[in-house]
């Protein structure tokens, strides 16, 4: 339905709206570009819509999956629609994989549908039901004894993770238990965890971040599947990483349901599991970074680079790791294109693939684009969730503190009041993509967000979903990044690269080569 409104009335209403929000913003300098950036970031933000499409419709973006490629294509199409030139740049190739559905049921001694899914890149069951008894990884004396036991794994699902004695988080235990009871519980849990880890080590194989080489060995022995559980210390939350099994499914099962399977097996109550997964390993596929660019008008060979990894783990939707960082950088580009279309320096955005497997997309870009590393004025990376940006560091570059001083002094107090600065700070050696550039001594800054319980509840978990977004904080971050990009681009000075004196025994982190293919990753 369309309602006709006199155009003048509409314009007046719009002005009133803009004025109201403009009033709420406290700029220390009267800068029309900063004012425009604020208005666009706060009054016509697109971050919610971007995140809804990315999280819900495209979904998680595991390297090598069709969703990752769909996200690459969506980013390029979105930038193109906004009038910003964009492209996908090939990084290498990766194991092709499609997750498909997983169904997981306990069928003996009683029926219950369990919460779980196959690990990333795992084999499936080719769409067939596999029904088999559940056994516990045995305590063996050494690897030889393990190999002698292996025939007993044939045709069974093998439990390989420590069974948590409770899936209540510790803050809940602290709230309700007596102090002596909690102390006894914790001491016992420490002993039992250590003893389980020793049991895994005794096999001579490892679990890595999922089922690892132990899973490979079990499937070679004919196991029906490998069952793991990596509880993330919160209510209903598991971290779900990857498997290397190519014949049998590797599963992650919720803390509660894993405990159920384990107790049934331990007590001889005959648990039988039925698993159906149509996960499919395919031929290797090409992998891409998505890059967009607003060309500099005065210093086109100097760069401001907005940075956020695009890939994710895939048990949730990859919303806070790193959909939020992705949306922040896309939105900042949209705002800059409208408020600052002719930047002094070139403004680039990099949406990196395969960060989760070792910063591979950003490392590849730094190798393939030495001109960008050489001409880098500033890189701003965000990759720790939905929270507002609060921590900023000069990354070990002494002169970068001055630059941050110049930029921050022009930010509105609504944003700057929350920023804590650490000068000269220290260069990041890993953790996120700024490390791929600071290793060259190029000014690459990580923007640190408030936690919102990221580490427990959303980072690499099955609960990293759209509802976890705190939209006002994401809007704040997009507006801040657009402002920083503008200020760094306009800055008459080039950010100096003098390195701090490192603390005794520490050195500047060395650059590491990108891993560009699956076979190098799993070697
Ligand atoms: Zn991340």
Order of strands across the main sheet? 1-10-12-11-13-16-14-15
Ranges where pLDDT stays below 50 over 5 or more residues in a row are 1-6, 12-20
Q: Radius of gyration from the CA trace? A: 26 Å
Bound molecules: zinc ion
In total, the number of strands is 16
Q: Estimate the mean pLDDT confidence.
A: 95
Helix content: 25-40%
Number of helices: 18
| Biggest beta sheet attributes | 8 strands, mixed
Cα end-to-end separation: 60 Å
Judging from the principal axes of the Cα atoms, what is the shape? elongated
Classification by helices and strands = alpha/beta
Strand content: 15-25%
Throw out a few tags for this protein:
single chain, alpha/beta, elongated, disordered N terminus, binds zinc ion
